[in-house]
Every structure is written in C-alpha cells, then in structure tokens.
Amino acid sequence: MHTELVERCHIAADIVGQIFLDEPQGPLLDALSDPSFLQSWPLEDDASQQAINALLEAERDTAEALQRDHLYLFIGVSSPLAQPYESPYFSKDGLVMDEDAAAVAAVYHQVGFDPGADNLPPDHIGLEFRCISHMCALALSASSEADQAAALAVLRSFTAEHPARFAEQVLGGVEKHANTAIYRALPGLTRGVLAAVETL
C-alpha cells in the first residue's frame, strides 16, 4: 500500500469535501489563506499545484464573497449553477434522491461512514469526498495487508462509480461561475484527489 499517498489523499479529500459542503470559514478559511499551509498541500499533481499556485497569488477571499459563491454554485436561488448531487445527472427526470442516492447510501452503510448531514441527500459531491477521506482512514488503520487491499478496492470502486462519473459536470459549473479564489481553485483540488485515488 502506498501509505504516504493514502494519508495525503485522506487529508485532501476531507478538505475538498468540506469546501463543497459549506463555504470555508474560521480555521479552514485561515488555512486556505496561509502560504505555509498552501505550500504544504498534500497532493503534488499538476492540477492540485496549479490550483495552489493560484491561491498563493490571490487576495484573501472575504467571508461574504465565499458565502455568496457557495450559495449560488451549490444551493441556488432557483437552481444551483453547479448541481452538487449525483442523481440529477443520471435520472431520467433530473430528480434528486433516486437509485443513485440509494446506492451511495448503501456504500456509506457498508464502510461505516456517517455523513452527519441529515438534511442533505447522500449523493452530494461533498459528502462523497468526505467518504473518500473516511475510506482512506479505514485503509490506513487496517490490521492486515489483505484488509488494506480490500479497503482500497472498495475506495477505488466507489470513486469510479460515483464522484468520478459526475465530478467534471459539477466542476464545469464551478469553473464557469465561481467568483472567489477558493472556489476557482476547487476544480483543480478536486481533480487532484480523483487522480490520487486512481493510483492507490
């Protein structure tokens, strides 16, 4: 097992998931505005590093601008500009909470992931990235090589079957409409996590 890369993916996926779920504030906003934190970003692929370099060159985002970006991108006034749920991309009627959401919820149950967001359907891309982080932690804590291999196999399968199959559609909306430095950087950070999982 590539232990160091799994650890790095665990950290990056958790942060990416948080940014999708809510606008960065408090310690997370401070970290994403801190050059020393950004320069130690856990993933070193080109997409991640381009995003990090853009953040290093940007002015610090205000809390109000981030809140507005998150609202319009992922919640929307009438509809989100970057639909964060998996189901609408594949449902015949564009509905949330169809069989894709049920399949994601089944994986959460299988791996013991508590999304902790009772008001959100399970197939929100932010929750899916938090689950990637959780599954990395499971692999790191596995007691045998066989258990580690099994945990990583579930991780790769989940990522390919769920976030990886609709992430580019979400990220296209983010790239088109994001106004803050952090949300403009999010697509690169997201692609970095997906690329890392493929190599585990």
UniProtKB/TrEMBL annotation:
Keywords recorded for this protein, A-Z: Chaperone
Q: Which Pfam family, just one, is annotated for this protein? A: Nitrate_red_del
- Record carries keyword Signal: no
- Highest taxon in the source lineage: Bacteria
What Gene3D superfamilies does UniProt report for this protein, alphabetically?
Answer: TorD-like (1.10.3480.10)
**Name used for this protein in its record:** Molecular chaperone TorD family protein
This chain's source organism reads Corynebacterium lipophilum
